[in-house]
């Protein structure tokens, strides 16, 4: 099993920064939502950020080395998790920071695939190892993160049961869906699916599966696809699902969709903050790093 987890935290958080009139958020919470990276918004006990809880679950799953990809203005991460660029000890986790630089001529980062490519360029040891990748603004369970460590498949992702996600149906309907074969090998990922195609995308359990950006990769075989990732024609970004599909085309039957049926708390917009706070109060009343 591998011990490396790469956390994507260098995005622009543009949807979180959109104006919203909410009576269940304090002025401080609104300020944090407008100024901080989403994973650093204080939704937990004593105002601790969501990322604490993701790191807790990563530790429970057995990860040792954490690489957090931050933006060029991401120094606040170092106030929480260690002032050095590499090898910070945070509750027994070895935390290092990679920086996603914005290319000249752009005002926003170049997407998740670009973030990971910059990270493996800064930490080339990842290109000879296996590693997991996930978002900083989703709270994946320790069980899901452990499943990524345990799989023998060269590449994998957590294939979530769409019906188990506790989001509004309109929001869920926009999630990209994954097409798996009878052995749960990835065949395709469809963005913005229409209701007419859902029947064709059901897996052997009759479930519609979605990706929430929780992956396991073989560094040596993924590198070329990261480096050569094309730009998405609509969003003008380089995205990890594109990398994954290109890897599948070249190496069929090497990307396993691991079926999971559970909710994944998500901080995308200000409207999510109260829901995530309530979830943490219910399921994580204390942050117990020694459990």
UniProtKB/TrEMBL annotation:
Coiled coil: none annotated. Gene3D superfamilies: Spore Coat Polysaccharide Biosynthesis Protein SpsA, Chain A. Keywords: Nucleotidyltransferase, Transferase. Residues 34-251 form the Nucleotidyl transferase domain. SUPFAM superfamilies: Nucleotide-diphospho-sugar transferases. It comes from the Bacteria. InterPro entries: GlmU-like, NTP_transferase_dom, Nucleotide-diphossugar_trans. PANTHER family: N-ACETYLMURAMATE ALPHA-1-PHOSPHATE URIDYLYLTRANSFERASE, NUCLEOTIDYL TRANSFERASE. This is Sugar phosphate nucleotidyltransferase. It comes from Flavobacterium azizsancarii.
């Amino acid at each position: 099993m591998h011990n490396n987890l790469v956390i994507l935290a260098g995005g622009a958080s543009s949807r979180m920064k959109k104006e919203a009139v909410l009576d269940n958020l304090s002025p401080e919470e609104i300020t944090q939502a407008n100024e901080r990276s989403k994973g650093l918004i204080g939704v937990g006990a004593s105002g601790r950020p969501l990322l604490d809880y993701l790191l807790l679950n990563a530790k429970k799953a057995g990860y040792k080395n954490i690489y957090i990809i931050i933006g060029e203005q991401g120094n606040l991460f170092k106030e929480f998790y260690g002032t050095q660029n590499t090898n910070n000890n945070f509750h027994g986790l070895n935390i290092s920071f990679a920086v996603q630089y914005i290319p000249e001529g752009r005002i926003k980062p170049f997407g998740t695939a670009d973030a990971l490519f910059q990270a493996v360029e800064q930490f080339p040891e990842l290109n000879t190892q296996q590693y997991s990748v996930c978002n900083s603004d989703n709270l994946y369970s320790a069980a899901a993160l452990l499943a990524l460590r345990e799989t023998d498949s060269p590449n994998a992702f957590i294939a979530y049961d769409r019906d188990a996600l506790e989001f509004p149906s309109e929001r869920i309907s926009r999630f990209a869906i994954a097409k798996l074969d009878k052995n749960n090998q990835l065949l395709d990922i469809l963005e913005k699916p229409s209701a007419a195609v859902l029947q064709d995308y059901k897996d052997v359990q009759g479930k519609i599966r979605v990706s929430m950006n929780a992956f396991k990769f073989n560094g040596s075989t993924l590198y070329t696809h990261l480096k050569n990732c094309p730009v998405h024609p609509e969003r003008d970004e380089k995205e990890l699902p594109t990398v994954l599909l290109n890897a599948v085309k070249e190496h069929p039957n090497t990307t396993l969709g691991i079926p999971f049926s559970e909710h994944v708390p998500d901080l995308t917009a200000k409207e999510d903050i109260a829901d995530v706070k309530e979830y943490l109060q219910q399921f994580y009343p204390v942050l117990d790093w020694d459990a």
